[in-house]
Amino acid sequence: MTDMQSAGTTTLNFTLNPVVEAARQARALVTDACGQWHRPDLAESAHLAITELVNNVVAHARTPMRVDLALRDGELYIAVRDYSHEPPRPSVPTLSGGRGLLVVEGVARRWGCTPRRDGKVVWAVIGG
């Protein structure tokens, strides 16, 4: 995990493998970051968002992922980069799933997907 500060922005980044435990690991890192940055009020929504973003990589992209957390102007920026070019697709919720991006949309001020040459970054902004 890397911790950096620049121009009023504090950032952390870490790499996770596409395994079932990845979401739990990501939530623990969000808890640590929100505590370190004195913003525990952002943790609950951030936990929901990062769980869904990481689980989407595990279930669909199946590639290692880089997670970036940044606190800027009172907002928590969450970015999950994977190495699949398939964009996230909201799906019709069923009893067994399909709610991930709906959850992200519900807790984030905004979210989106940015294509990259070698994959994509799905991001969400919490708080503000």
From TrEMBL:
<dbReference type="InterPro" id="IPR050267">
    <property type="entry name" value="Anti-sigma-factor_SerPK"/>
</dbReference>
<dbReference type="Pfam" id="PF13581">
    <property type="entry name" value="HATPase_c_2"/>
</dbReference>
<protein>
    <recommendedName>
        <fullName>Histidine kinase/HSP90-like ATPase domain-containing protein</fullName>
    </recommendedName>
</protein>
<keyword id="KW-0418">Kinase</keyword>
<dbReference type="GO" id="GO:0004674">
    <property type="term" value="F:protein serine/threonine kinase activity"/>
</dbReference>
<feature type="domain" description="Histidine kinase/HSP90-like ATPase">
    <location>
        <begin position="21"/>
        <end position="125"/>
    </location>
</feature>
<keyword id="KW-0723">Serine/threonine-protein kinase</keyword>
<dbReference type="InterPro" id="IPR003594">
    <property type="entry name" value="HATPase_dom"/>
</dbReference>
<dbReference type="InterPro" id="IPR036890">
    <property type="entry name" value="HATPase_C_sf"/>
</dbReference>
<keyword id="KW-0808">Transferase</keyword>
